[in-house]
């Protein structure tokens, strides 16, 4: 069959819904975030690492995690970008407005990092190692979106 | 040739909805229990095989959520996107290759989080079948019709399978649905897709299970008479609309391979306990026949001593998809290690675990376990 | 002592952006037919078929079972894997273990993807954890971009140096009749001037989306020797995972814990102490230009922070000391379910002396890698000499 011979196509729109359980560790984190606008992590008593997101086990030591500690709200940029490519937000089905700042942020006191938005879209003003601070929403509902974004701090 | 043994197993209770647990918590719970039961530390385990499905988990690469809790940090894990018993087969291959002594095998699913019918509709040919709105249940109903007509099986015969399953499940603490039902009860339960009634179809379930495989040498250091994998067989059939749905040829072939490897010539006499992965009642009858356990499966089920067929109650009493085949191996192992509690088949030495995947059981797996 | 295992045949489709003339089933058939022809085999010679595919990209559940006739699976054992970018190497490694185990003698590994048939960005975004990552993710490109800035900061690598890797890929691809993006005239300036998607990643730094399939046949020793004039022997396989979340790896590309662990384990098994000297060719899963340079460092081809210098010196060019991705790599061809298995197929072609215009003269030891999910890694080492 040659490329010239016209072939047909069928189109499907998959529209299926999921209801994800946040779980016990996540619920504790998001409850603290919603009710007190603060971050918590969970510490491994073997290696001392503080995990954000919190989770049942330290994968490195394979030790169950139970020791909760407060982290943030300040943090440091580990990696960053300014997204300029238009793309559909799978949570809303709508196009995310571009450009927007985006970073890997290590909260103070944590050993691992969160992905989140930055309040800056000028590439010349962002760098690795820069200090940031979480900006919380006024009305919080218990999800990572309760953090509006991270704000760059003046040096 | 090296041999592979099972040295421990664990499963969660199957429930319609485990709303309080995220995937990593669900799986960590079952792995922790397995480690505690066997006394093996995660440090000693270098190899893991997991089974789960992106479409059910609503996540591309469903294994990502659980790699850390199965202990795979800097270790070798692979995820099969197939029935859980396929994960056990690959685990066996990993140990037989000589590279690993221990392999953890884990399957999980939370069917409650997605929409099963929409998900299983994705198995169907997009050009000529999907537009018809088919799902796993409707295809199973078509198969039940074909099979029952060819073998002259009545609605009451099929209902008997459900009666037996739910009675067995009364003895299984992990079961989601159990009870003393009559044939009339089964036939009075809602008709889901003619001829399948609600009690003749697996419920929607959340759950996980895990097994620890070891080389025979390693297993002998832990137990005197280990439960070994004596035979394995897998076979893929044609797509469902391109074969005779009344026949289970792939299962016959998978069984033939497993029996040959295990040196079994008369399965009806040599196998003491069988765990069949029947998500619909007619599938249990088809499997009994295809596995060569009895020429007239209805007759066998109607007899009292049929309790060696799926003593756990099987998928009709709880069935997280993907977990279904692997938990059959968990049950078969417990029967041979004497840990099956009230559902124990006395003196069981040879057990069969069955798993199936795809539309109307397109891919079939058989595993034979033997205790010395 | 495990049984010795070798690759005896490979087959690929011509990878392109959109194959409107075939469906998934027919696409797979092209690759499988070519692999069987390569070793003059029929499906009767194949004991089992292992498949790799990322069905969220096509909106399918068990597409391989629908396509069974396309890969000759009727009445054969089979199993499907799904592990993200690594799925092709996961499948190849499983084929190795299944043959080494003695369960099967001849196993065919098949990887396929018709990425044009689904919504790639959505499928990639749902890689993110629904609770912790998805609502704030920026797709595959945003994710690579944040890793790239970390790497630039740690190693001092420049956008120009990364662009050189992108140019090398598309020029090498011109020598590969199966490659998707073939750009003979591409320059470093073209890459630097291409649209900024997410700083520092520009359009030409990234891999394309492709439709394609690949099949690779593995056999135990006696059959391998009988069926292939020069089999590619498997010397080592290794897999290493990361922790659960995207932000868990402390330095991402600048310190790829899983690639370091898996490659060192494989080098040790293959008796390699100096990979840059002892490997003759590498086919790595480089996803984006910056990742290729970072992988040089993490694979031990050079010291930390020297990835940019390695590309400046031309070490990894087709004519260099250690050619990397003579095929054009992932930056030229990326049908996800097939991509990592294409790395294995290309490494095998080099060992078998069948790589045509992209052949590295005298290649005796080759490396293939897969990279996927939350930064985890597969490694396979092939050689002309038996293990
Ligand atoms: Zn720890």
Q: Helix segment count of chain A? A: 1
| Coarse structural class of chain C | alpha/beta
Shape of chain A: globular
Largest sheet of chain C, in brief, is:
9 strands, mixed
Estimate what percentage of residues of chain A fall within beta strands: 35-45%
How much helicity do the residues of chain C have? 25-40%
Low-confidence stretches of chain C: none
Tell me what the structure shows:
The complex is a heterotrimer of chains A (155), B (372) and C (387). By secondary structure, chain A is mainly beta. Chain A has one helix spanning 23-36, and strands at 39-43, 50-51, 57-58, 63-64, 67-71, 74-83, 88-89, 94-95, 100-107, 114-118, 131-136, 147-152. A five-stranded antiparallel beta sheet of chain A has the order 10-9-6-11-12, with no helix packed on it. A three-stranded antiparallel beta sheet of chain A has the order 2-1-5, covered by helices on one side. Chain B has a domain at 4-115 and 204-222: Thiolase/Chalcone synthase (Peroxisomal Thiolase, Chain A, domain 1, 3-Layer(aba) Sandwich), CATH 3.40.47.10. Chain C is α/β, with parallel strands linked by helices. Chain C has a domain at 5-120 and 209-227: Peroxisomal Thiolase, Chain A, domain 1 (3-Layer(aba) Sandwich). Chain C has a nine-stranded mixed beta sheet. In chain C, strands 5-6 form a two-stranded antiparallel ribbon. In chain C, helix 3 (87-101) packs across helix 14 and helix 6 (159-172) crosses helix 11 (289-298). Chain C is globular. The termini of chain C are close together. At the B-C interface, strand 3, helix 3, strand 8 and helix 9 of B face strand 3, helix 3, strand 8 and helix 9 of C. Zinc ion is lined by residues 44, 46-47, 49, 58, 60-61, 63 of chain A. Residues 44, 46-47, 49, 58, 60-61, 63 of chain A line the site of zinc ion.
